[in-house]
Specification:
With 111 residues, the protein is α+β, with helices and mostly antiparallel strands. Helix content is 34%, strand content 32%. The protein contains 2 helices and 5 strands; from the N terminus they run ββαβββα. A hairpin with an 8-residue loop joins β3 and β4 (54-62). The longest helix is centred in the C-terminal third of the chain and has 25 residues, at 76-100.
């Protein structure tokens, strides 16, 4: 999997014995070099039929903090990737705010 981080493209390999969602999670974690573990994920169909969208939510633990992400797509794996990247972005943003010393970390619940 390839992700863009600013101008840089980072890559991770998608390997898993348990399925494509875990493989995507592992690849994103590797590509971002981010210490994170999956706490919980949930997939819900937004409608019925063959063209149903999937609403995927992911919770990750990064350095003792929980971050949530959400992704919606017609494809379950794509929805998972969007949700994982969303949660990872929240963790990265929070870490930048904390290390910058701006005091904005107190607004974490609104990130």
């Amino acid at each position: 999997i390839a992700l863009r981080r600013g101008e840089e493209e980072v890559k991770g390999s998608a390997e898993s014995r348990k399925g494509p969602v875990e493989a995507a999670f592992n690849a994103i974690r590797e590509a971002l070099s981010l210490e994170m573990e999956c706490v919980e994920f949930d997939a819900k169909s937004m409608s019925g039929g063959e063209d149903a969208s999937v609403d995927m939510t992911f919770q990750i633990n990064h350095k003792g903090e929980i971050y949530r992400g959400r992704g919606i797509s017609l494809n379950m794996v794509e929805a998972a990737i969007i949700a994982i990247v969303n949660a990872a972005n929240r963790a990265i943003l929070h870490e930048r705010v904390v290390t910058s010393g701006t005091g904005a970390a107190q607004t974490r619940s609104t990130i």
